[in-house]
Amino acid sequence: MLPAASPEWVRAITQGSVGQASESFWNFVEASEKQVHAQLAREAIIALPGQLLPSQNIALVREFIETHVLSRGMVADWVYHDEPGNPHIHLMMSLRPLTNEGFGAKTIVICDETGSPKRRVNGQLVRTQWGGNRTDFLEFRNGWFECQNRHLALAGFDLHIDGRSYSEQNLDIVGMVHVGPAASGIVRKAKDASKTDHVRRAELNQHRKDENLQRIIRRPSIVLDIVSSERSVFERKDLENIIRRYSNDNALCSHLSAEILKSPEVLRIDRAPFELNNKNQVLEKFTTKRLIRMEARMAMNSVRLSKLKSHPVQANRMDEICDRHSWLNKEQRTAIRYLVDGQSIAVVVGRAGTGKTSMLKVAAAIWRDAGYTVLGGALAGKAAEGLQNGAHIQSRTLASWQHRWDVGKDRIDSRTVFIVDEAGLVASRQMAAFLQVVKDAGAKIVLVGDAAQLQPIEAGAAFRAIADKVGYVELETILRQRKAWMRKASACLATNKTKLALDEYDVHGKIHSCRNKDEALARLIANWDEAKSKGVNSLILAHLRRDVQQLNLLARQKLIDRELIGREFSFESINGPRKIGKGEQLIFLRNDSSLGVKNGTVGQVVSAARNAIVVRISEGGKHREVNVNSKNYNEIDYGYATTIHRSQGVTADRVDVLASSTLDRNLTYVAMTRHTEDLNIYYSKEIFRNKESLGTVLSRNNTKETTLDYDNGPIYMQALRFAQNRGLNLLRAARTLYYDRLSWIADQAKRLQEMGLRLQIIARSLPEREVAITGETLVPGVSEYTKSVSQVVAAQLAGHRALQRDIEMINSSLGKIFKDPESVVKKLGVSSLLAEEDSCRAKLNLLREKPGTLGTLYGQAGLFAGRRARQEREAVLNAAGYLATQISLHLDYRKKLKASLERDEIERRQRMSVEIPYPSEVAQNYLVDAGKLGDEQYAQRHEAYRSLDQGVKAELEAFATAIDRRFGNGAFLGACDRVSIEQKLAKVMAYCTEEQRQYVNNAWSLLRAAQKIESDKLRVKIIEMYSIKESISLSI
């Protein structure tokens, strides 16, 4: 990677492949050095967080290098290694500045504050390394940890990595010695351990582990210090994981974690309202007083700012500027008057489509007219770009502002107005930091957003908590939608009346019910294509990335069919190769200042070549073109469909939404308020049984809380004892389990392959047994069974683990909804009803619509119920409807599984009915001789087969066909002993008698030999085909 404005000679070097460019550059560096032992580069091996996906880690590395390496004028050469359990990069950085003629000097003269060169006492100039000294290295190191923590937060991990040493963190433990996988392998294989450095390092590492364990035993609170430095909310297992870094003793881990939780610094989080995401056993979550104090300090700062008068403007000038913008409505004028009124903090709750950006544009003009500097920030780069283009306010991401302030750049002062857009996405920790900076500088902060839209990735709904504390002005008039009934529906969405909004769209025929997901995808794309052909600006939305990917491919194929995409060229993107042609719509997935694009920017391809494209980007009525080369920027993908998260702040004439079971009311609010003219929602009956089920899921409440939600309680005021509740992220947990299972399967497959190779070697040394079989049938068919098909399937369903887990979850969920779940179970008859689908479905509506008639619910309702009791009752009612949906989905799954098991059992019995005839004496003798020959002697075996009589050949083919019908094609190939054969046939022979098993055991060598012969015929045919092909190519 090259720094900006690099000389042409170095850019010319990088025109080839990555490997060639790297080799050419470092050869040039070496040739430029005069000393034989000169240092050519600074090298670093950097471990990457294992929690992130490869694409996320690559984005992390790119941002870090752009910020901390290229910005210093250094050339960066790096390679990414995605080793299991050890993702890392190797980074090499140049040590000389680039000049038009080559390289500059390694050292530079240090200047004083006046710009004059510094000199020593003896008159010599004071120099330092251009590539950086110890101070620069520490800045480089700290920058890495800051960048890493930000990407972990953006990926949804509440995890903080502290780059300081244990002593700097005041942790009473000693640092460990890094022993990588290669060193560990050397330690395991070393015979004379005392002679290897790796072994000595391993011994030192073990000694330090033992020492740290003893320190933890003496003072268990050390573990609390470590976990609180990494995450703000933790579980008992997090404590145990830290202890296991130093000991594998489960009893000791359990004892120490129990002692730690007794610490007065630990606060157990208050019991959460029911969440179906939790497992059967509710996991206790803990936090520390530090987080409590941080959110309390955030609240105090916001209240203090609200009482300070600052940044006044002249009323007549405000009116004059507002009059210039005649399109402002009364609500927007009221909001502007509130913003410029003179308080040091202002909060605007603007519902989606109410014209927040337009209002901010006018407010910014008023502040600038009064001589103030107006700056803006947002969590996402795309939102910051939208604020800059739409409101003409200089904007960056919040992380970028924090970094610049930390290094002393662009500091705000008392003449600054700082606007935070999409503030509902900002977590408590980051919000508290910004409020502190604003308070210390005497600046003014404006928070704009909608707490009912997407929730912050990290903990704490800070925007909602601050709005409750200091008050806010609200924009309720929906301006984005053109039709009155659509604006009415958007208002319902903004006030959490999701079902009413869905009913409004349903009445107008905008909600489409489909038999299955494939039909939903097909109808969505067909309607989108029809609108696209009429020139309508359309947007496709889905929540799941796999759905977005599928929609993109389907939409793209429609454009190809209409010949709207030109000749395709391959482009190596970060997500794999993509075919791209002229007319393609693409989305950029990473911020890049040199290209001027943000994460989420959409553009149109105007020309394409292999791994190089030109994209036209339209912003604010202006058009520009950017050249994209896969070697310098490959984070692009098709942009016809996008996720709902990326769509926040986006407007389109028409929107088509694919509904999924992962939606909630916040996501639904965003998805259903992006359009101006038309909106259509498509759902599958396999996922949502009916529109009522769709409304239940899409109106679920996933709103986050803060510790400030409890500040009216006596316990909070006495000791700040309540902490923020965070539910488990079901998708993240499922994704983790999914990748763990894939890793386990790959490991088992590798082990089985190694075992197979060893068995083949052993089998070659074993003699073949002669077969002596009497009777008319070699393997008789099976036509009688002790159990019917329905009995076998019923037994399989009863022992099916997934169904058992569902039933356990249903019983556990009822216990979290009703105070007396046993009586409810009796009324519903859950255990018996799940086996009787029709009668169970008839009672689901009772659970969905009137759960209170079944038993006493948790929480309270009514005029005299407290806030938390009402919230709990609302959550329980939503959970009851959601549970009814889950039971319905369970019944659907059980029905499909039952049909599949019945088909498998019928097919198995059909196979078992096939008889394998006893071969003739001539055929038997040939099979015995053929079985003695190894796999490498296939040619000799096939030659003997060719010499057989045609009648014998026909008999052998019929014999092999019967074997394939009975046991499956190739069932006896690849296994080399009877044990392997029996294991391979265990499933097929599950219900055979001992006598029938004996037939197979006695005949296995003949059966195997017959399948070998058929395999030899296929192998010889393939070899002959390739021989003919090769001779033809040689003759040409």
Q: What's the gist of this structure?
A:
By secondary structure, this protein is α/β, with parallel strands linked by helices. The chain is 50% helix and 14% strand.
List the helices and strands and how they pair.
Layout: H1 8-13, H2 18-32, E1 41-47, H3 54-68, E2 76-83, E3 86-94, E4 107-109, E5 127-129, H4 134-154, H5 181-189, H6 197-218, H7 221-230, E6 233-235, H8 236-243, H9 250-260, E7 266-268, E8 285-288, H10 289-307, H11 315-324, H12 330-339, E9 345-350, H13 356-369, E10 373-378, H14 381-391, E11 394-397, H15 398-406, E12 416-420, H16 428-441, E13 444-449, H17 462-470, E14 473-475, H18 484-494, H19 498-507, E15 511-514, H20 517-533, E16 538-542, H21 545-561, E17 569-573, E18 576-580, E19 585-588, E20 602-609, E21 612-619, E22 622-629, E23 636-638, E24 641-643, H22 644-647, E25 652-658, H23 665-671, E26 675-684, H24 691-698, H25 714-719, H26 730-764, E27 777-779, H27 789-798, H28 801-817, H29 821-828, H30 830-833, H31 837-849, H32 867-912, E28 916-917, H33 921-932, H34 938-946, H35 950-967, H36 978-984, H37 994-1035
Parallel strand pairs: 9-13, 9-14, 10-11, 10-12, 12-13, 15-26, 16-24, 16-25, 25-26
Antiparallel strand pairs: 1-3, 2-3, 4-5, 6-8, 7-8, 17-18, 19-20, 19-23, 20-21, 21-22, 27-28
Helix pairs in contact: 3-4, 7-8, 8-9, 10-16, 10-17, 11-13, 12-13, 13-14, 18-19, 20-21, 27-32, 28-29, 28-32, 31-32, 33-37, 34-37, 35-37
